[in-house]
Design goal:
Layout: H1 38-43, H2 59-63, E1 68-69, E2 74-79, E3 85-89, E4 94-97, E5 109-114, E6 120-126, H3 132-139, E7 151-155, H4 159-172, E8 177-182, H5 185-197, E9 201-205, E10 222-227, H6 234-248, E11 249-260, H7 268-281, E12 284-291, E13 299-306
Parallel strand pairs: 1-5, 7-8, 7-10, 8-9, 10-11
Antiparallel strand pairs: 2-3, 3-4, 4-6, 5-6, 11-13, 12-13
Family: Belongs to the methyltransferase superfamily. Fibrillarin family.
Organism: Cuscuta epithymum
Region (Disordered): 1-56
């Protein structure tokens, strides 16, 4: 008899345990002290008493990176639609309001901002030069793709996925949930540690190509399905997105899909055109196509809506 697939998930409302969150290797963040000149460190407030002496690749920084105050100049306080509050900073990045004050996540940096009512709020930097979702929000802040209370199914893997999931967790808050389908056991272990602190994160150790295998972990339809797998072919991307959308996305829900040129023989325009054709065939209708340049070269993000054909 074939062994049942391993699923690491947590039902909503279940206790999260006491596992300590750790930082995956090699994820630098905005203001990372290893890559910043001395003048920049002084400008961003990375002074004595912070953790700026930890090199990004050192054993101490990898095993447990202590909270470091990163104090950038806030250029704009974005209060975008649906109650989401973000910061735009002079370094070009965004910041999300930390769902767990006092607890940093993947890069260890936090910043404090005084609100209009005098309260001091903690934010975490989000690298718009590495995260397609952050870049898309920075390019089109009027079109925020997730909101407080949303249920999000995230399909992606790698260290970048860990960062993205943590910021989605900040945005959706305690009333929302983000399911992260991850095929790498090492990354799932990191996500499990994150979920020990963030009750709205549910890691699932499975292959996104076989969405029927994790139906037991997702009991209700989600508001957003986000396919962040631009490194595979457009046909495979659309097939994965379509299967997951048909099983888990509610009628009228939204989908996100990131894409990139891929190789020298394929331009961004050509890949975009092929994706639009393939999505139309699956009845996935694109609302907006956002070019992520100059933040992320040769990359874009599609934002669309799903209409269940059986309900039309």
């Amino acid at each position: 008899m074939e062994a049942a697939p391993l699923q690491i998930s947590r039902m909503e409302g279940q206790s999260s345990g006491s596992v300590e969150e750790k930082t995956p290797k090699g994820i630098p963040g905005p203001g990372d002290s290893e890559s910043m000149p001395a003048s920049k460190k002084a400008k961003t407030g990375m002074e004595a008493g912070t953790n700026s002496n930890l090199a990004a690749g050192s054993a101490d920084a990898t095993n447990y990176r202590k909270r470091t105050i990163w104090n950038p100049k806030v250029v704009e306080h974005l209060r975008v639609c649906q109650g989401v509050s973000l910061l735009r900073c002079e370094e070009g990045g965004l910041c999300t309001r930390n769902m767990i004050p006092g607890k940093a996540t993947y890069n260890g940096y936090i910043t404090y901002v005084q609100e209009e009512d005098g309260t001091v709020v903690e934010y975490r930097p989000w690298n718009t030069f590495r995260s397609p979702l952050a870049a898309a929000i920075a390019r089109a802040p009027e079109d925020i793709f997730v909101a407080p209370g949303f249920r999000v199914l995230y399909l992606g893997d790698g260290e970048g996925a860990i960062a993205t999931v943590s910021h989605i967790s900040d945005i959706i808050g305690t009333r929302g949930v983000v399911y992260e389908v991850e095929s790498c056991l090492q990354n799932v272990a990191v996500l499990v540690n994150m979920a020990a602190r963030r009750a709205n994160v549910t890691p699932i150790l499975e292959d996104a190509r076989q969405p029927e295998n994790y139906q037991a972990a997702i009991l209700r339809k989600v508001d957003v399905v986000y396919c962040d797998m631009s490194y595979i072919s457009e046909d495979e991307q659309v097939a994965i997105l379509s299967k997951n959308v048909s099983l888990y996305l509610k009628d009228g829900g939204f989908f996100l899909l990131t894409y990139e040129a891929g190789d020298r023989n394929s331009s961004l325009y050509e890949r975009r055109k092929r994706l639009h054709t393939a999505l139309d065939a699956e009845k996935l209708f694109v609302i907006k196509d956002i070019c992520l340049e100059p933040l992320i070269l040769n990359a874009g993000l599609l934002f669309g809506v799903y209409r269940n054909a059986s309900l039309i």
